Amino acid sequence: MMKNTALVVGVSGITGSNLAQKLLANNWTTYGLARNPVSTLEQLHPIPANLLDEEGLVQALEGVNPTHVFFTTWMRNDTEAENIRVNSALVRNLLNVLSPKKSVQHVALVTGLKHYLGPFDAYVKEGVLPPTPLREEQPRLALDNFYYAQEDEVFAAAERDGFSWSIHRPHTVIGKTVGNLMNMGTTLAVYASICKETGHSFNWPGSAAQWYGISDVTDARILADQLIWAATTPQAHNQAFNITNGDVFRWSWLWPQLAGWFGIDYQGFDGTVRPLEQEMADWGPLWEQLASKYNLKEPDLQRLASPWHTDLDLGRPIEVMTDMANSRRLGFSRYQSSRESFFDLFEQLRQDRIIP
Q1: What is the pLDDT of residues 222-263, one digit of tens each?
Q2: Which of 1, 31, 273, 351 has the highest count of CB atoms within 10 angstroms of its CB?
Q3: What are phi and psi of 167, to 5 degrees?
Q4: What does the alpha-carbon distance between residue 289 and residue 301 come to, in Å, rounded to a whole number?
Q5: Whole-angstrom distance, CA of residue 169 vs CA of residue 242
Q6: What is the mean pLDDT of residues 149-155?
Q7: 58: which residues sit within 8 A by CB, 6+ positions away?
Q8: Is 252 left (phi over 0), alpha (psi -120 to 50) or beta?
Q9: Can you give the residue ranges of the PRISE-like Rossmann-fold domain (predicted)?
Q10: Sign (positive/negative) of CA torsion 311, 315, 319, 320?
Q11: Exposed, middle or buried, 282 (CB in 10 Å: 0-12/13-18/19+)?
């Protein structure tokens, strides 16, 4: 394994940071690229760089010759057209810069279930909802989608440079990071912490379909395992894989258990959708007070909670579960309890003084 050199793009995010930790534990030489690649991993080689600055990338990657590239980042924009323009450029620029090095053997791209559900401004609308469980063989939707554009950049570069690829489609990644745009686990931990402090009820914010339907999530650790497995397993090359914990649950079962972990009262679905983005809109000063009172490390609520994204996930008008048969039949057998994914995260956040 010492011969493998990984470049983790987006190393500061939930997926990238957990992946880098696993790679280092398996003796990979590991570089972490981000605008601000802050990390507590001592053996990680940080690379500060802007993926939209191709000339800057050339300089930042001088002397770096990765055998495996793990692309785990994206940039949110106001429209899907702009998402496509920007996020395809992130992938294209990086692979163009690496192309002359002739070192890359495999590129893994992390996207998600918007591949099946459509982009942010479309996937909550009736009429474009696919059948569940979601399967990798389902065709692309007739909608603009930056995930498709990113995939096409990987496919084109693979044909040009001769490397293998894998696409990974997690659902709602649960894991620790700070400053991430899509972070349901920490959002719910912060929400529950404020509820406990104020006596506020832990209110279900989403739809009836999500409350009563079957769902699944993806622990960042199991996603990291699948990324490494696909990169190093020849029969898994040049394929797309769904990736979830391997269990399913109903939020009507899990929500009371999350409330119980914090020792707070909860309110389930009562016929009303109560978006967290509205409920938490004015809670920034309250979180600052909690951070001061309990000596927490991050007083900025916006760097911890992403209620807009949690609302999108929990407000879907469809139950969401994914089929894992494609990777299972090739030998990927990891399993993770989803309840324990949340509990493990809450314990870590408390231990690291992110929540009281």
Answers
A1: 999 999 999 999 999 999 999 999 999 999 999 999 999 999
A2: 31
A3: -115, 135
A4: 11
A5: 5
A6: 98
A7: 97
A8: alpha
A9: 67-356
A10: negative
A11: exposed
pLDDT at residue 37 in the model: 83
Residue with tokens 């999500």: 210
**Short-list 165, 19, 158, CA closest to 98:** 158
Residue 70 has phi, psi (to 5 degrees) of -115, 110
Query: Between β-strands 164-170 and 106-110, what pairing exists: parallel, antiparallel or unpaired?
Result: parallel
Rounded to whole angstroms, the Cα distance separating 53 from 57 reads 6
Q: Which residues does the annotation mark as catalytic?
A: 114, 147
**What would the pLDDT profile of 194-207 be if each residue is shown by its tens digit?**
999 999 999 999 99
Backbone angles phi, psi at 3, to 5 degrees: -75, -15
**Cβ atoms within 10 Å of 55's Cβ, excluding its own:** 9
Q: Is the peptide bond before 133 cis (omega within 30 degrees of 0)?
A: yes
Give the closest residue to 73 by CA, choosing from 112, 122, 116.
112
Q: Indicate if the pLDDT at residue 291 is higher than 90.
A: yes
Tell me which residue of 7, 70, 16 sits closest to 221, measured CA to CA: 16
pTM for the full predicted model: 0.94
Provide the token pair at 66. 């990765």
